[in-house]
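Hi support team,

I've been running sequence recovery on a batch of backbones for a student project. Most finish fine, but this one hangs at about 90% for roughly twenty minutes before it completes. I'm not sure whether the input is malformed or the queue is just slow. I've pasted the structure tokens below so you can try to reproduce it. Let me know if you need the job ID as well.

Thanks,
M.K.
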């Protein structure tokens, strides 16, 4: 099996093989995706630069709210890149005949810098270790391919759903087909995936909320809430503050790992229920449009529309498969 070359094949490969942690990806595939991410970042920067001042004025109008939604889209899109980026980097390491486990070691080395600095070893580890880890990673990512054959990815387009799968099989399917917008996913596959997401997000979300509440309570107890007091509370935590920040980053990164897989399983569940997945997009667009409209025209009807759309989506996601003979 040969790799397709070029910009668009690399982008397609990036998303469709999001769940492939065992294959290889060429140097060209990796850097085409990197170029695409740079272009998206430039567009996002231009949008923020042009639209940002209008939002900062604090105007509560339909136009200002709509602009705010547009500015948030690039940030939302970034949340969907974490999972495929991780698998792409691992495949690029393997393509260069470097053990993917070295990538984990480099991440640990980079994180050790702030931890060592906070433990009293000075600012040198804070800068040196992340820089060393980044340079080693960069060198590996620019190494040429070692003429390895690309093994076919286990999940093929248009994979059918399986009725009655258990929790473990559904979670495996969720990540294995993390970039697959084709095929279908059964009710059991979808709702087990929802349960898995809840088990991950609820405890970690509560931890983040309670940690922030405790921090604000500490700031308030120190007197009045101002940047100096907040900095004082943070500094007083010392090593614990750095660990807390690292934990927050790890939690947000774990959430981003769920974004694309949950999007694709929802997309496939719509199709499995006999409903065009583009209705999912339509619901999202309408909800954001109504939310923007509420900024200048608050009323009960506008408040109920997003709720009604959520209920409609839940009903669709609970529908039985359209054709059990195909499952």
């Amino acid at each position: 099996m040969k790799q397709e070359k070029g910009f668009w094949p690399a982008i397609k490969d990036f998303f469709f093989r999001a769940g492939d942690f065992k294959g290889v990806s060429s140097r060209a595939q990796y850097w085409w995706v990197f170029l695409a991410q740079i272009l998206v970042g430039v567009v996002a920067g231009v949008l923020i630069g042009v639209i940002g001042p209008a939002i900062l004025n604090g105007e509560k109008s339909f136009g200002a709210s709509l602009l705010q939604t547009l500015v948030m889209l690039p940030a939302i899109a970034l949340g969907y890149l974490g999972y495929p980026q991780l698998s792409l980097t691992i495949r690029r390491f393997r393509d260069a005949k470097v053990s993917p486990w070295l990538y984990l070691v480099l991440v640990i080395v980079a994180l050790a810098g702030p931890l060592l600095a906070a433990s009293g070893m000075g600012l040198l580890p804070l800068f040196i270790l992340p820089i060393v880890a980044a340079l080693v990673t960069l060198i590996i990512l620019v190494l040429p391919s070692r003429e390895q054959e690309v093994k076919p990815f286990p999940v093929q387009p248009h994979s059918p759903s399986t009725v009655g799968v258990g929790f473990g099989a559904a979670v495996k399917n969720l990540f294995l087909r993390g970039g697959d917008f084709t095929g279908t996913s059964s009710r059991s596959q979808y709702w087990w995936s929802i349960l898995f997401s809840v088990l991950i997000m609820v405890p970690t979300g509560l931890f983040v909320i309670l940690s922030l509440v405790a921090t604000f309570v500490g700031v308030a107890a120190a007197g009045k809430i101002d940047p100096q007091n907040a900095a004082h509370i943070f500094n007083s935590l010392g090593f614990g503050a750095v660990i807390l920040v690292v934990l927050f980053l790890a939690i947000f990164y774990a959430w981003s790992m769920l974004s694309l897989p949950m999007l694709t399983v929802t997309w496939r569940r719509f199709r499995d229920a006999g409903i065009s997945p583009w209705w999912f997009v339509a619901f999202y667009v309408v909800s954001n449009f109504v939310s923007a409209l509420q900024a200048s025209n608050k009323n009960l009807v506008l408040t109920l529309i997003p709720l009604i759309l959520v209920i409609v989506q839940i009903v669709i996601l609970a529908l039985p498969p359209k054709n059990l003979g195909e499952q």
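--
Follow-up from support: It reproduced on our side and the slowdown came from queue contention, not your input. The chain has twelve helices and no strands. No action needed from you.
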